Amino acid sequence: MTAAAERAYIALGSNLGDREGHLAAARAALAALPRTRLVGASRVEETAPLGGMDQPPYLNQMVALETGLEPRALLAACQAIERSRGRVRAEHWGARTLDLDIVRYGDRRVAEPDLIIPHPGLPHRDFWQRELAELEPDEP
Q1: Is 43 considered catalytic here?
Q2: CATH: 3.40.50.720, 3.30.70.560, 3.60.130.10, 1.25.40.20. Which one for 6-135?
Q3: pTM of this prediction?
Q4: Which of 1, 18, 72, 102 is surrounded by the most beta carbons within 10 Å?
Q5: Active-site residue flag, 89
């Protein structure tokens, strides 16, 4: 790990197939990324789907990484991990085998069409806030 590593928080979610297996595979794949180290993982919790669609409940978890990857490279890696677990991007708010969202990346702010950091859903997802609090017990 280099001195340029930053703390990134990735939300993991799955509501199709082997949900626990998809989360475990995602944790392992994130930990194996170059210049990246998994430094924490929240407990896994089951939540109702967002967006009002009729679909199975999700298993969710937050992980903390120390990474030297830039946000765009981390996003590409997350999407490759999703695809490796059978993720198909067919409909917004649709069911998925695996969803990986960059929730925060250090103190950075990114506003691009396909990448917004901090994630705009953070203030509206209580389970993300609980999971972050678990990983950052000393922060308010």
Answers
A1: no
A2: 3.30.70.560
A3: 0.91
A4: 102
A5: no
